[in-house]
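Help!! Second protein's tokens look totally different from the first
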Amino acid sequence: MIVLHYLDVMIGFAFTMLVISLAVTAMVQALPVYMRNLKGEALERGLTDLMVRVLPGLESHAKVIVDHILRDPLLSPPRSPPYTWFVKPQDGKEVPRALSGVVQREEFVRLLLDFMAQDDKPDELQAVKDARAEIKAMLAMLDLTDPKDLLLRIRTRIANLELQYPDWSSSQRASKAILEAFMAGPGKDFMAKLVGWFDQTIDRVDAAYTARVRIWTAMFSIALVVVLHLDTFALMARLNADSALRDKVVASAVSAMEKGQFAPPPAGGSVNEAQALACARTHLASPGAARGLDAYADCMGLAEATKLELVSWPHDLDAWASRWQKFSFALLLQLLGMSF
């Protein structure tokens, strides 16, 4: 019986930590990852550094070029809620597209050539026109004077390769066509540097993105611990002493597992997007009594813990401050270690 008693205590404790962790993950996915587009920002910085490495002297224009490419309609879909609930278009223009978080080497090369081959448009920013003129001048010094013709030859070669090798993937055909075009003509040095550094740059982009997500996760975790005054030792003491609470928590944990609420997302997936959008619409983007980060956190998974009174939101500043009169060592450990 003693073993079962402490087993129930540990199940209740693990259930509480899991619920809070899922709430933190959901908030990180919905706010900094989606609203801030951390992946797109990391990719923009990485490709900007790559362009400067490949074409020294392009420092003042590299970011403009990469930004223009990553917002291309072929890479980046139009903005969708909840972003458009907060950011409204100005002067009748649509909300700018998000920076794409993924681009293949072959796509980047073709879009770069397309950027250079285009004529300046009247509604383009002057910075974009200046960047186009600068990179065309730099590549002209490498004997690449006609990007439009080079792009046409690459597209034609890709089509011919599809006829010859229909079992090849599109990336294989594009890679072969691009390398053949550059290695046999102008821009050989440019392409050699780009090929040599692109894959490693993307690896570093992924590492930088992961690091930033961890920082945001730590910030949200610390914020929840501070606001909820989550004391792990006190929580385990409550679960150990209160048999009614312990039974309710274990029953909720078993029910959640049977419903698959804690099943991991598919490979490459994240939290339920439909749920994130619905919670954001209700608790972040619309006025009313249900508006607020506390209600949003409850909607994204913390409600189960608050319903069982394992954690509770302070009603006012005085109630929150009174919880901090006795600062416990366990709470300090929670602040330092919860997000890791």
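Here's the second one for comparison:
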Amino acid sequence: MVRRALAVLLAGGVLVAGAPAAAVVDTLPELGEPQEAFSFQDPDIAESSGLAVSRRHPGVVYTFDDSGHGNRIYAVGPDGRTRAVLRIAGAVNRDWEAIAPGRDEQGRPALFIGDIGDNLGGAWRTISVYRVTEPAELRSGTLRATRYRFRYADGARDAEALLVEPRTNRLYVVSKEKGGGGVYAAPSRLSTERVNVLRRVGDAPSRITDGAFAPDGSRFVVRGYFDATEYAMEGERPGRQLRNFGLPLQRQGEGIAYTPDGRALLLSSEGVHSTVWRIPLVDPPTGDEPAGDVAQQRDGSGLLADLLALAGVAALGALLWRAFRGLFRASERDRERR
């Protein structure tokens, strides 16, 4: 609860920095209180840099370690234990930063792994995305990858978010930049023979570390270290911002995914035995419920979090006022001396 309140204060600041209010959408689920879903039990998962929910194995998520940790992904069960370690043949982990669910050429559940990181400020002329078909049976082994190469139409850049639109299977990359990033769309048909061009189709917040589409493809979410922003999807381009919200504090949050039913968001972070958080998405009240029932939907923990957040804002305001008052009094004393 305290973490959630602090995150709200730190997050690009809906409360502190006066970010624009999210648009009101009747069908947009409300956010519940964050819950600890599980912790990674495998000490080999030290730098989880992305998260994807399996479309073939209920309760299983996939993650991986970024550059320097080999070309393998981990299938993790709802108890946090590793179910399988999958080596990706035909791939190189230069700087893996993202993983997203999609489909292969036969329509089977697949995973897209984004070797899209560039910490050298645009040194890599091309980036790669590897596609593997999800195994029908979860056991450790090797998966053969199909490699797609990409370049940005407007020049190389760093990125950590790869999203696959579930209706069209189209790939999107969101760049990670200080002054605000961009959303880049891949061609509708990918080629393995030539370099595919990524073209900018929208803007994104600063320092995005991951993103994901909702299962129905109607909206998508991108996250940073302290907050996340959800957008509507309009055709093949990002639409209006739906909301911005704070996230639980994490060591270095770099993963986000919707659950298969779209009823929750999962958040992962770097760090050995790091916690995966679950944020429930609750249908908003229809207006038909009695006032008492609606009030009961917010339990004591939610009210406490709100009070803590408000108290933090009040404390910040008090500190700013004291600083201003001190400067004013000092200025008055200087005038008196003259």
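Reply: Different proteins will give different token patterns, so don't panic. Residues 289 and 295 are 10 Å apart (CA to CA).
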